[in-house]
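Action item from last week, closing it out:
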Amino acid sequence: MRKNSIKNIRINAEVQRELSNIIRREVKDPRIHPMTSVVSVEVAPDLKTCKAYISVLGTEEEAQNTLAGLKSGVGYIRNQLARAVNLRNTPEIFFILDQSIEYGVNMSRLIDEVTVSDQEKMEKSGRSGEAEEAANEED
C-alpha cells in the first residue's frame, strides 16, 4: 500500500477519529488536559507504526503532562484502538506534540497588533495633517 493511497487516507481518518474518542472518553489519567485534540494521524503503509499529532490548549507544562500521560497509557489506548478498528495489525502509537494551532493563533494576534498600530499611526498623521491645513487656512 502506498503512503497517499485512498486506503491509507481512510485508515488515517478512522484511526484519528477513534483515538480522539478513546482519549476523550476512556482514558482517565488526571495528567491529560481536557482540551486535548488529535490534530492528525499518519499510519505507516505497513500498519506497524502510527504517529499521532496531539494539540493541547493550555500552558506548556499542561502540554508536557498530557504527553507524559498519553505515553504512559499507550498500551491501554492501543488495546482500545484494536477493539474499535479492525486492522490486520494494530499500529504502535507514537504521540507527538503539535503546536501548529498555537503558533497560528500567536501569528494572528501579532498581525492584529501590527494592523492596529498602523491604523493608529495613520489616524495620528491624518489628525496632524488636518491641524496643519486648518492653520494654513487661518493665515
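Closing note: The radius of gyration is 25 Å.
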